[in-house]
Amino acid sequence: MNIESKWLEDFLALADVRNFSLAAQMRNVTQPAFSRRIKALEHTVGAELIDRSKTPVALTPSGRLFRITARTLMNQMMDGIGQLSDLSKLGGNIVRVAAAHSLATNLVPSIQPKLLAGKHCPLLSVEAIDVDQAIEELQEGGCDVLLAFDDELLRLPPYQSLQIGQAELLPVCACDNEGKPLYQISRNKEIPWLAYSPSSYMGRQVEAIRDQVNLKAVFLSSMTDLLKVLVLQGQGVAWLPDYSIQDELASGKVAVVGDPHLRLPITYYAYRYQARLHPAGEQVWQTLRTLISQ
């Protein structure tokens, strides 16, 4: 199917003003030429898009549906051109990174200084989003590199992966003025639980040991940093990754509670497609590879 972008623009103009003469003027072409282009579009898609029997003209049911498609196609094309333009203005060195919230906050700042060396000077553009959303971003080509937790499918072709590190989800709560934890996990007494959304990666890890503890969910979020704030306020127990609470553990603001088997191992990776990235993207990937080999 060979559809010219100018036909889509013609159709969208006509859909807006519902008048062939006015739409032709807007598109800076003669009315006969404009009408031929609309006819060519209808012939190509195999459907009548304009009801010419009405004054002003109207969209047919197929035309109303195709209007959504045409607008989506034009927006996608303009977005793509805009991204290429931005890359050009910045020397082509933007590297789009999608990252799980906690990794974006705690991992990216540690690797950013290492990326300043090298001839391509990568400029990281980081979006911190839900883990499952981040995976979708990579699968749909919305990012160059994904920083996320273990995902078996992403460790298989057509993807590449680097194991960046390992951590633990620790059950923690705030401490009182004497440095004692405000809560203790036991089967006998229900305690307030600051929980991850059940559908999130972290939530699924905690659900694996849910029947071993006596918890009452009082808050839900997929954001580690938000749960951490509520923990520090003494509002309950949460499973937080160790890298996000190192300072708070060292200062005695929070304490690990519960038996050792409630500490949950997690592994995090960098993922990408096997296809070669642009030079700045390849430099970021090689930097990550170097960091984990040290």
UniProtKB/TrEMBL annotation:
SUPFAM superfamilies: Periplasmic binding protein-like II, Winged helix' DNA-binding domain. Pfam families: HTH_1, LysR_substrate. The keyword Disulfide bond does not apply. InterPro entries: LysR_HTH_N (IPR000847), LysR_subst-bd (IPR005119), WH-like_DNA-bd_sf (IPR036388), WH_DNA-bd_sf (IPR036390). The keyword Transcription applies. It comes from the Bacteria. Residues 3-60 form the HTH lysR-type domain. GO terms for molecular function: DNA-binding transcription factor activity; transcription cis-regulatory region binding. Keywords: DNA-binding, Transcription, Transcription regulation. Belongs to the LysR transcriptional regulatory family. This is LysR family transcriptional regulator. It comes from Photobacterium chitinilyticum. The lineage of its organism: Bacteria, Pseudomonadati, Pseudomonadota, Gammaproteobacteria, Vibrionales.
